[in-house]
Amino acid sequence: METTQHTMHHIKCAPGEIGRYVILPGDPGRVEKIAAYLDNPRHVQTYREYTTWNGELDGETVTVMSTGMGGPSTAIGIEELKMCGADTLIRVGTCGGVDPELVPGTLIIPTGAIRKEGTGREYAPIEFPAVPNFEVVSALKDAAARLGHKTAMGVVECKDSYYGQHAPETMPTEDELRSKWKAWKRAGAIGSEMESATLFVVASVRRMRAATILLLCRNRERENDTGLTDTVWETGPAIETAVEAIRALIRADREQAK
Fold this sequence. Notes:
By secondary structure, this protein is an alpha/beta fold. The chain is built from eight helices and nine strands.
């Protein structure tokens, strides 16, 4: 596609090429898989970490776009999606466990996110909470129930350093990292990932609706307690739930517009 003055600098899409409703995986390799759940899926653009496909649900254009890993690329993607006309975002991703009671394969729907990331601080002071949109969270919860998927709802930790969590003993900040992880666990956090806090804060500032659904793929806290190593990597249930939630939001938005 030839670049024009209206094409976004990073996602290389322009207004009119993006749907109002967007599904956001982190992994570019997961975009085509998600788009296959839509009607008439088609590739739109690929540039850097941003791979974009479109499809339809009930005649409405729905976009699937990867964000890459972490807050900075997620925020850039959200900003440019907003400028292209998007207003409703659902992140579909994976996470690790913090609550040892949760079994891998559970779908986590965050009700809030710990702002242990830096990008959101460029948008709002740290006292501003990272919370998802209630309508979208409700749509995800109801969709998962209709589909018969096991879910958990609660606060997730969002960090910038993957290896700060998984290899804290290699970091000069080991004591702080371990202390905070213990605090999140004692306070009731249920999962750990890298994008939702940024998503929630940026979406709030830009007056967009946003929520997240995550596959709990591994729970090291549970492994430490039980000695069992279980992993689940099939993201189909999370994708199905996001698609069903967007279908419900489309219908609700149409009814409200009447």
